Amino acid sequence: FLMERKTRVKINRKEVMLAKLRKSCSCTPKKLKNFVMDFLPVLQWLPKYQCKEYIWGDVMSGLVIGIILVPQAIAYSLLAGLKPIYSLYTSFFANIIYFLMGTSRHVSVGIFSLISLMVGQVVDRELLLAGFDLNDDAPSALGDGSLQNDSQSNTTAFNLTIAGMNAECGKECYAIGIATALTFVAGVYQVLMGIFRLGFVSMYLSESVLDGFATGASLTILTAQVKYLIGIKIPRSQGHGMLVITWINILRNISQANLCDVITSAICIVVLVTAKELGDRYKHKLKFPLPTELVVIVVATLVSHYGKLNEVYASSVSGAIPTGFIPPKVPHFNLMLRVAVDALPLAIVSFVFTVSLSEMCAKKYAYTIRANQEMFAVGFCNIIPSFFHSFATSAALAKTLVKTSTGCQTQVSGVISAMVVLLVLLFLAPLFYSLQKCVLACIIIVSLRGALRKFRDVPARYHVNKVDTLVWVVTMTASALISTEIGLLVGIVFSMLCIIVRTQRPRTALLGQIQDTSFYEDDLEYENLSSVPKVKIFRFEAPLYYANRNYFLKSLYRLTNLDPNLEAARRKKYEKKEKQHLKKGDHTTANGLGIGETTLQLVPKQIDFQVLVVDCSSISFLDTTGVNTLKEILKDYKDLNISVLLACCNPSVIDSLKRGGYFGKDFGSMQEMLFYSIHNAVQFAKDQK
What we know:
Elements: H1 13-25, H2 29-39, H3 42-45, H4 51-80, H5 84-101, E1 109-110, H6 113-129, H7 147-153, E2 160-162, E3 165-167, H8 171-195, H9 207-230, H10 242-252, H11 259-281, H12 292-307, H13 309-313, H14 333-364, H15 371-386, E4 394-395, H16 397-405, H17 412-428, H18 437-447, H19 449-452, H20 458-464, H21 466-481, H22 484-504, E5 508-514, E6 520-522, E7 529-530, E8 534-540, H23 549-560, H24 564-583, H25 598-602, E9 609-615, H26 624-638, E10 643-647, H27 651-659, E11 674-675, H28 678-688
Parallel strand pairs: 8-9, 9-10, 10-11
Antiparallel strand pairs: 1-4, 2-3, 5-6, 5-7, 5-8
Helix pairs in contact: 4-5, 4-6, 4-12, 4-16, 4-17, 4-18, 5-15, 5-17, 6-8, 6-14, 8-14, 8-15, 9-10, 9-18, 9-21, 9-22, 11-12, 11-18, 14-15, 20-21, 21-22
């Protein structure tokens, strides 16, 4: 039987587009109100805020995140190659802006290790190109920590022509100039992606690619912190192969290790790891996580200050952190041109991590987010703070998990966290002057535990899916050994190639009938299947398109043990010889057979079927080459008196076959060529016999 297709209503696409354009360009008070409410989701949920029910959880989670955020922000400034004050600015503004624009109730947006690393690599490269020394301990005139002194220290003896501008600018001001320009461009990219609804780009970053990228970047981060752990002074490596070059420099200078930093690092790592392990083990009994990082920083700062570790043992310290806010400044346009390419992977990674974490929280707590609005939120979390000496931000997994575990209900907790950071910015920042850099490095390394633990999951991952494991390994290796940006690109390209290869060489099978049923399965995979006499059933488990056409034909010919082209050529050759013998008056054939026996000779013994059924249930689409391939096998097998029947075609495949003329001009033979199940096709073949 042939099912009747529904008649589609023809849509005038031009009129639809014009209607949408008119609707989007029109401006009414109601539409303006809806636009503002959608652009600032806080206006929708804040008036409905249930204070008695939500406030305690929001305040507690906000305080805990703020306490965690301060030491992490100071530590991650090492990754970005910037002063700690800029990390604090970043954490403050990101929380405020996401509170206004974000649609997730639980995600924690702020400074993130991977994003800081990507920013730091660009900053280091541009500093090197501008002729600055990448040594972290280069002399700096940060005096007593006031903003006036800081602004003076940004202007040194360097009189440079940088990025097309004449600028008398020191290392620090040029570094933050690069970071803010990079952040601004990344934010613009994210907003443009939101306007043009390009959020689908994130679909090409699979879980294996993201995990491999995070693990490879974590190895790079760990390597960059080793010199702080042991207190040696080596240049910050740049370019491809940074991880290998850095380790070579570390091993060459290991004899210069600072014993004070080594002892401090060992103590801090032991304390931090022990506290983390105990926190993970007894988290169901703890109402909120232990503020171990803050305790370590406070104790280490006091010991360093009163023990005079910097003066006596030459231990490297954070230095003066100014209080207050530096006046806003527009990122320089010429610097934006220099970092425009670098901003693209930064924008994509930042958006992907934020949306994936937002979706995870929304699914867990049964609410919805708007991915497009998340793109706008993250974009403006980069654009606006870039005017206030901040760098790129993203959602962070560790802080998001802490936020949800401490009773967070809404983004009011983000405002509380911002207030904690503001308190440090206005009053407490100078107290961290004596904080050793090795302590900050310990905090960064311990925070990488989650990403580095992915190595333990490799056997389980390999057991689940070998191809995904290969994608993870390739992405991780490229991110660690080449660079993070190239590693991400390699991971995306390699994962796509894996998909292409899988469709180029998919599984193929001949099917047998399950006894006493109307179902058919792979003859090589299952026992006790019975073959259908004079019928071959062929399954191809992929779309049929130009890249796998040849594999389709080779597999078909191999499994059926018949190449119709070779068989046709053999028959033509045989017939030609027969005609030559007949012309000579010889009544025996070339093989010594009589003319009456010639017909038997023309039907080769290896052809043991008269009907070929193609199971199209796994063929999701056909391109022009795919349609022509099916038409080709239809013709070739017809020349051998073998019928070709198609079974289980989806509507898209049927439409492609119709447009390609597979069923003829009037589709008259369609009922005899197309069947809705394999069993129908087999029954039809038996009836025709």
